[in-house]
Task: inverse folding
């Protein structure tokens, strides 16, 4: 599954890991991450993320 | 060599060679009422290593402290744990003077330095967990992204057990004492809490994860050497324990009442609300803006259970000092708070609703309906204020599962 990187701080959203601390279960695709989810490192919104090459 | 400024020994290999900024009172909007220090550290290995630098204006003080030990030209490596200018703005001049063999930083640190100095200085990137040997001692690098910038990194001097923690575990406290054990405990705890509240509070989940990771990595530093304030050379676990506590942001029976006022009407409402809160068993911290600084409001909020915000309405808006604090607090993302809004008004009275909207945006649950009183509060109005305070106190006590 496609990973996404936070352009602000470099955090990588990995769908395999999800973000359980924010209620996003492992296996959640980027498209299914809630629109009000925030970067767990720096707090910016989904609009600041870009797809990354593996 | 003997000069006015000397290095201070920290451990077998490490010396403090920083600078004391006795005069600083405003650190990008954080009231530093006791000044600060910019800590740089010299590792007397062969070759010599400098960990971080200082604010550019203090470069000569740092170089003088280095010169009290060794010729600054003998520095071969410079480690930049953090690109923020209070630790890096002396770096270009120091590099020009010393001509080190290597400047080391995290990958994000290299990029951030380039975007500060627009220089052609090569920076060698160190990876998370990487260990380098220098003259018989070992340096281990631990990336700490968003503690508190993307580039932030710790360096551990393995043999001496000294953790150069950059901005983590620091405080703005100028003084002649280089070590925490020389400072009254209530003073350093208050300044460390203020630093945490104003710099690290929004990053509390990151702090909690880092502490868990540090335990896994068995870093167990014997000394924590931050880049601001005194050094923890004994019982560094004390500050680690405080960080664990603060990162949980556990609410106490404490209410912070913040208000701005034009003709003392909103102020009188604040005092009456405070009476109700206290009667309901809360510790009350009144923060009248103009007298209280936004950074002290943040500190008081660190372990509070309620935030109550008051503002008069001026030209259909929130009073500017209140808007300032709300913007600041929103960024600090305080957790586990109940809230309420209040204010006196003349004819339109929008401020209370505007504050409530901001509190909701901050995910603060409103514990009572906002209270607006026209012009000057009378006895009945002040009784309603007291009742609002009592209502918020009861809600906090209930949330904390206690008896009034």
Result:
């Amino acid at each position: 599954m496609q990973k996404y990187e936070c352009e602000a701080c470099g955090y990588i959203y990995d769908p395999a890991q999800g973000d359980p601390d924010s209620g996003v279960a492992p296996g959640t695709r980027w498209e299914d991450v809630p629109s009000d989810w925030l970067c767990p490192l720096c707090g910016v919104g989904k609009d600041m993320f870009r797809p990354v090459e593996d | 060599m003997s000069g006015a400024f000397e290095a201070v020994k920290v451990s077998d290999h490490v010396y403090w060679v920083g600078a004391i900024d006795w005069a600083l009172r405003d650190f990008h909007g954080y009231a530093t009422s006791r000044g600060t220090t910019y800590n740089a550290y010299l590792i007397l290995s062969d070759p010599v290593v400098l960990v971080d630098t200082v604010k550019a204006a203090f470069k000569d003080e740092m170089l003088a402290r280095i010169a009290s030990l060794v010729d600054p030209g003998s520095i071969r490596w410079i480690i930049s744990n953090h690109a923020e200018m209070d630790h890096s703005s002396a770096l270009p001049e120091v590099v020009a003077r010393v001509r080190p063999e290597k400047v080391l930083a995290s990958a994000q640190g290299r990029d951030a330095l380039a975007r500060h100095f627009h220089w052609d200085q090569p920076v060698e990137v160190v990876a998370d967990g990487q260990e380098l040997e220098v003259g018989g001692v070992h340096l281990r690098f631990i990336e700490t992204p968003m503690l508190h910038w993307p580039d932030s990194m710790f360096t551990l001097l393995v043999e001496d057990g000294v953790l150069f923690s950059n901005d983590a575990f620091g405080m703005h406290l100028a003084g002649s004492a280089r070590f925490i054990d020389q400072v009254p405990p209530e003073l350093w705890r208050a300044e460390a809490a203020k630093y945490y509240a104003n710099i690290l509070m929004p990053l509390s989940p990151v702090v909690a994860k880092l502490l868990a990771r540090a335990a896994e990595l068995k870093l167990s530093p014997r000394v924590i050497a931050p880049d601001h304030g005194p050094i923890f050379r004994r019982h560094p676990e004390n500050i680690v324990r405080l960080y664990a506590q603060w990162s949980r942001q556990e609410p106490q029976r404490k209410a912070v009442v913040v208000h701005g006022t034009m003709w003392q009407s909103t102020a009188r409402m604040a005092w009456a609300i405070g009476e109700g809160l206290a009667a309901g068993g809360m510790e009350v911290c009144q923060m009248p803006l103009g007298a209280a600084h936004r950074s002290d409001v943040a500190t008081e909020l660190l372990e509070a259970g309620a935030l109550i915000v008051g503002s008069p309405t001026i030209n259909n808006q929130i009073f500017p000092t209140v808007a300032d604090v709300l913007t600041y607090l929103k960024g600090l993302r305080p957790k586990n708070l109940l809230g309420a809004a209040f204010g006196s008004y003349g004819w339109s009275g929008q401020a209370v609703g505007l504050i409530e909207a901001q509190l909701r945006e901050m995910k603060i649950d409103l514990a009572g309906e906002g209270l607006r009183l026209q012009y000057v509060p009378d006895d009945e109005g002040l009784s309603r204020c007291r009742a609002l305070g009592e209502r918020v106190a009861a809600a906090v006590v209930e949330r904390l599962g206690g008896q009034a």
DSSP finds no helices and three strands in chain A. The CA atoms of residues 15 and 30 of chain A lie 7 Å apart.
